[in-house]
From TrEMBL:
Pfam families: Peptidase_M16, Peptidase_M16_C. Belongs to the peptidase M16 family. This is Peptidase M16. Residues 234-419, 717-895 form the Peptidase M16 C-terminal domain. Residues 1-26 form the signal peptide. GO terms for molecular function: metal ion binding; metallopeptidase activity. It comes from Aurantiacibacter marinus. InterPro entries: Metalloenz_LuxS/M16, Pept_M16_N, Peptidase_M16, Peptidase_M16_C. The keyword Signal applies. Keywords: Hydrolase, Metalloprotease, Protease, Signal, Zinc. GO terms for biological process: proteolysis. Residues 77-219 form the Peptidase M16 N-terminal domain.
Amino acid sequence: MTFLSRLTRLFIPFAILLPIAAPVQAQNCIIRATEADQPQYAMPDDPWIYRGTDIPVDPQWLFGEMPNGVRYAVRQNDVPPCQISLRVRIDAGSLHEEDTERGFAHLLEHLVFRESSTFGPGEAIAHFQRLGASFGYDTNATTSPTATTYNLNLPNANRTTLDDSVRRFAGMVIAPTLSEANLAADVPIVLSERREQAGPQRRVAEATTAIFFAGQKLAERSPIGTVETLEGATSDTVRAFHRRWYRPENAVVVLVGDADPQVLAAVVERHFAGWQGDGPFVPAPDFGDPVAPAGADPANPVGEVGVIVEAGQPRAVTYAIMRPWVGVIDNLEYNRRNLLGEVGLAVVNRRLENRARAGGTFLFAGVGRDKISRSVDGTFVTYAPLTDDWETALDDVRSVIADALSQPPAQSEIDQAVATFDVAFVNSVEQSRIQAGSQLADQIVQAVDIREAVASPEVFLEVFRSIASRFTPEDVLAATQALFEGDVVRSVMLTPTPGEATEAQLLAALSTPVIASGVARDDAEAINFADLPVIGNPTLPVSREPLGLLGAERLTFPNGVRALLMGRDNEPGRITVRVRFGAGWRGFESDEAIYAELGPIALVNSGIGPLDQNALDRIAADRKLGFDFEIDDGTFVFQGLTRQEDLEQQLYLFAAKLAMPSWDPNPVERARASALLAYDSYGRDPNGVLNRDLDYLLRGEDPRFRTPTPAEMQTATPDGFREVWERLLAQGPVEVAVFGDIDREATIGALSRTFGAMNLREPLPADVAARGVTFPEAGAQPQVLTHGGDADQAAAVIAWPLGGGSEGIVRSRKLELLSQIFSNRLLDGLRERAGAAYSPFVSARWPLDVDTGGVMFALVQIEPPLLPAFFDEAQSIANDLAANGPTPDELERVVEPSRQYLLRAQTGHTFWLNQLQGAAFDANRVAYLPTIYVDYDEATVEEMQALAAQYLARPGWQLQIVPGANATGNTPSGR
C-alpha cells in the first residue's frame, strides 16, 4: 500500500535524513591559491567542451586538457560550504564490452572500491565515512551503457583532505587491484544485485530493449551482465577490459568545491597528468543504427514489434519513431530547434492529458524525445489502455497526435507552454547562485555523455526569450512534424493475458491510417486570479511571537489558523509553503481504506471553487506554483515551491482547497482505474508484496492501512470519496509554514487574505485525536507471505517497536545513529563477508506528531535458502549491540557524516522547515532544537548500548516473503 513508499525517504543514505542543524557560525573555508598552485594545462581561451560551438562560454568553469588526454573541468562553489565534489568519468560502459565481457564494466565499478594502489582491501568506504562522506550518497559510482562514473562529495574539505582524496580516487581508478581474491569477493555481490533486480520489471525491460534496439549493441548490453560471463570472469579478463578502456584519453575529471579554481586545477593535474595508457588506444566500437526492415514502405516504416506477456503487469503500449543518433554541433541554432520541438511536445502532451481526463479510452499517454546511449534519437509514444481494448485506445492516442501533426496549434496553447518553460528558466537563473556543487559536477558529466556543451542558466533564459516571442503556430507545427519523422517505427505491447494480442495485430494497428481528432484541443484563454472568488474577509493575525531562532515567528489568526514564518535571503526567489492540517492517518475510519488509497491521486485534481484540472493547469502556467499532497501519521500535508510574486496565489490554492473544495468525479474515476490496473503487479515479486502489505502488518493489521483489493476498490464512488474527504478537509488545526526568500509584511498580508479569511475549523473529535497504532507480536517463527515471481527471489524484514511523540525528539536522533551502526554491520555481514545480499539496510522511524508507530527494522532481498542466515545475523547484531554496544570506530563512522550534514544543512531553508514544522502548536519542536548538534556530536557508545538494550534485546518480529507455488524463473512469453 503506502508504508514502504512513505518510508522510502528513510532508506536513502543517512546524510539526507537527519533533522535540521541548529544555528552554527557561518563557515568560510575557501582554499585560496598560492604561488605553488599554477596549473600547466588550463585553457581559459579554448575550452574543450565548447569547441565548434557559438554557445557563450560559462566563465565560472575552468577547463583543461593534459598531454596524456585527460580532460578536466573545475569550478569554485561554496554550496554547501567547505565541500568538494569529485567526478571521474570513464568513457566505457556496457556498450564497450565484448560478448564474453558482459557485466565487466559494472563489475569493475565494484572492484575499484574494493582495493587499489591507494587503499587496502575494503578500506575505501570506511575511510571516507571517517571524513564525513556517507556511503551511497556522498561516495558512489554508476555504470551506464556508455560510461562509468565515480563520485565523491567530501564535506569539511581542507587543502590536505582535498589533495589526498583526489590522489586516492586517482589511484582507485588508475590502479585497482584486480586479483582473483577480490573477484571472489565482488562477483557474488554483483550476482546478488542482479538477482535483486530480477523479476517482472527487469524481464520486461530486457525484452523491450531487445525489440526497440534490434540489430544494435544496446539490445543485449544491460550493465548488470549475465550470470555466465560474471561467473567466468578472471583477473586476466577483467584486467584486459580495464587496460583497454581505463585510459587517460577516455577520462574526464570534474572537481567543484570551496576552493580557488587554480587550486582545483593544480590538484587534478598533480594526480592525473602522469597517467599513461597501456598499449595502443582503442577507439569506441560502433553502436549501430536503427534500420528499417528490408523492403519496408518509406511512408510507413514499421519495423520490429513485440508482444510481451507478463502476468500481473498492467497493459501498456509504446511505439517509437527512431532515427540514428548523430553527433551534433551544439550551437544556438540547434538549441532553437530543440526548444521549438519541446514546445510542440508540450502541446501534444497537454492534449493527450485533456483527452484522458475527459473520458478517453486510456489512463494516461505521453510523448517524449530521447537520445539514448548514443544509439538512437527517438520519439517515444506510451499509453496505458483502460481496458483490454488496446486497439481502440491506440486509435484514440494516434488520433490526437494526428491532429497535432495536421494543423498548427492555437496561439493560446503555445503561450501556455512557453509560459511554463519561461518560469522554469527564470527559476534556474534565480537558483544558480545556490546550486550545489554536486549538481554542477553532474551537469558536466551529463554534457560529456551526450556530447554537448554546457551553458549558464542566464544563457538559456536569454536564448529562450530571444526566440520564444517569435514562435508561430506554423513553426511549432513544423518542429512537431519533424519529431514524428524517422527511419523506422518499432513497438512493444505489454499485456498480462496470453493470446490477447499478436505481433501481426499490433503491426496492423500501427499501420492502419488514423483519422485526426481535434476533440482534445484546448484553446481556452488564461485565467486571472483576480477573477476568482475570495476566501472570505481578510483578517490580520491577533498575535506575532518570535521563536527566538533566525528571525522566525509564529502568527495566530482569530479563526485558529497558525503560521510560521522564516525569511532566508541566501536562497533568492525560493519559497516553500507547507500546510499541515487535520488528523492524517488518524482521521480515517476502519472501512475507509479505499478512499485513503485514492486521496493522494485524486484529491488535488478534483479542483477548487470554479477551477477544474485543466483550469488549474492554465492558471499555473505563467507562475511558479506547486501542489503536492501526502498523508502523514498525524497530519495531512500540502506543499508547494513558489516565489514572492506568486506567493499569494500559492496560498490561495491551498486555502481554497480547504475552504471551497470542488468534487469533479473524473479524477476519482481515473484514480480508481489506476489502482485497479496496478493491483495484480503487487504479488509478482517481493518488493510488490512489501509495498502492498508491510504497512498493514507493522501496524498490527489495522484495516486503515490495508491495500484495498480490486473487489473493494470497485465499490469506490465519487460520492463516497467526497463524503470522506469533505469531512477530513474540514476538521482539525491548520499550520501554514512559509520559509524562504520572503517579504515578511507582504507575506502576512497574503496570509490574512487567504488562511486568515477562512471560517473557524471543526475540532478533531476526541476519539480521532487519541487514535494510535499497535505493533504485531513477535512469533516463534517468521510470518510468511508468498509472491508469484522468480523462484530465486525472497525478502525478509525483522522489526522492533520504538515509540513516538515530540518528547522523544532527542531519543529519535540517537536511534537514527543506532540504526546506521546496525546497517553498517548488517551490510558487512551479509554483503561483504557472505555475498548473500546486495543492499540490506536498517532504518529507524520515530513519528513526532503521534505517540505510537515508531519502528526500527532491517530489510533485505535475498535467496530463499539464505533467509535463516539473515534473521540469525540481524538478531545476533541486535543482541550484541544490546549487550556490548558498538565500537568507538563504528560510532565515529556514523557520527562524522551526521556532523558534516548538520553543518551543510543549515544553509537551506527547507532543512529548517523540516525541523520546525509543527512548532506552531508544539513547543517541543523549538525547545529541543538547540541541542541537535550535540545530540549527534557527543553521542556515546554507552548511549547506543542503552538504547539497543531497551529496544533491540527482545526477539524481533519477523516477516519473510518467499516464492509461491506459481513462482517461476522464466522469461516473459511472446515476442
